[in-house]
């Protein structure tokens, strides 16, 4: 008998499991709306043209090698990442109160960020997370020994934000709690606070001495405008908060499997920033020694070259505008079909995902009868829709809500 005979069998990851089921399905019109990765109008993964170009430059550079990066990663990548999220004229950057560490994409940034807080912040306060949130947040928080508590976020009656419940939960939490916020394009709901609502959220976080922890996985991908998608983070920085930001280049560069990301900490002064960065390096050393180079090189090259940067913005618009177009087409078709219910939220929600409001029982029918795959909370990936399958999806959705 094995020493591990009696350990429980872990459940498979829901989303990866859903994709595996989709792949096995032989039905010709099958649709995958589960996976959180961009697809072009033919349903294929898309390598951004600017990424292709950068790859060629890197491959042909005689100075490229496969040596280790520094523990905290590629310096040009880290500096460019901080500028991208904070803005080139950020006072925090000018005052040298920013610490950065390259991470294993957004997931790794979240992990390193919470690990850092678990060691150097407080252990007696919860991490406040939105209800619902990205499926991995709870496990990441738990994995470093912190506790979480949920705050109200999504209002199923309006398919929009429950701002009153949100503010109330922030107020009710112990002073100094860590507040996990989605910088833009909230996953899984696609519901973001307005700028006015962000100001109210910042007021309460300030009054309660909470610590803002931003997860930013969709900058530029959400609206097609890098500055607009960074507005909330920059607003908090402007108001003088110390905070932490996780950046992922999975979606906005399409570098999913390359694991390019960055953790940035904004603090009060340069002295603290140096100490923070030294501790991030120490934690990183024990976890992964040093981060992967390939994706970071691509991102660094593009962000630091004005011409390539401009081409990247074009690619971002290609992706975000296609998704916005799919929202419009889906909405129009549901109106045309006179599908019962209101569907404005499809237009109002932003980013990769939409919370349709479908119930688990309706999702089941979509999967079993129509071979349309989505998570049982009714979340759909807009990127899985195309001009080729949108009619089929709209009609199937219409059928299950009738
Ligand atoms: N955070 C949020 C909110 C996400 O939606 C995602 C990806 O779906 C991530 C983080 C991390 O993704 P990755 O580790 O691929 O960058």
Shape: globular
Main beta sheet: 7 strands, mixed
How far the N terminus sits from the C terminus, by CA atoms, comes to 54 Å
Helix content: 40-55%
Number of strands: 13
The value of Rg in angstroms is 21 Å
Ligand kinds: pyridoxal-5'-phosphate
- Report the mean per-residue pLDDT as an integer: 96
Q: What structural class should be given to the helix and strand makeup?
A: alpha/beta
Strand line-up in the sheet with most strands? 2-10-9-8-7-3-4
- Stretches where pLDDT falls below 50 for ≥5 residues? none
Number of helices: 16
- Written as H for each helix and E for each strand, in order along the chain, the element string is HEHHHEHEHEEEHEHEHHEEHHHHEHEEH
**Beta-strand fraction estimate:** 5-15%
Provide tags for this entry.
402 residues, alpha/beta, seven-stranded mixed β-sheet, 16 helices, 14% strand, pyridoxal phosphate, EC 2.6.1.1, NHTrfase_class1_PyrdxlP-BS
Tell me about this structure.
The protein is of the alpha/beta class. It is built from 16 helices and 13 strands. The chain has a seven-stranded mixed β-sheet. Strands 1-12 form a two-stranded parallel ribbon. A hairpin with a 4-residue loop joins strand 5 (154-155) and strand 6 (160-161). Helix 15 packs across helix 16. The mean pLDDT is 96. The structure holds pyridoxal-5'-phosphate.
Describe, in short, the structure shown:
The chain is of the alpha/beta class. The chain has 16 helices and 13 strands. This is Aspartate aminotransferase.
SSE map:
Layout: H1 14-24, E1 31-32, H2 49-60, H3 75-86, H4 91-94, E2 98-104, H5 105-120, E3 127-131, H6 136-143, E4 148-152, E5 154-155, E6 160-161, H7 163-172, E7 178-182, H8 195-207, E8 211-216, H9 226-229, H10 231-238, E9 243-248, E10 260-266, H11 270-287, H12 294-304, H13 306-336, H14 344-348, E11 353-355, H15 360-370, E12 372-373, E13 379-381, H16 390-401
Parallel strand pairs: 1-12, 3-4, 3-7, 7-8, 8-9
Antiparallel strand pairs: 2-10, 5-6, 9-10, 11-13
Helix pairs in contact: 2-12, 2-13, 3-12, 5-6, 7-8, 8-10, 12-13, 13-16, 15-16
The chain binds pyridoxal-5'-phosphate.
Pyridoxal-5'-phosphate is lined by residues 36, 105-107, 134, 182, 187, 215, 217, 248, 250, 256, 261.
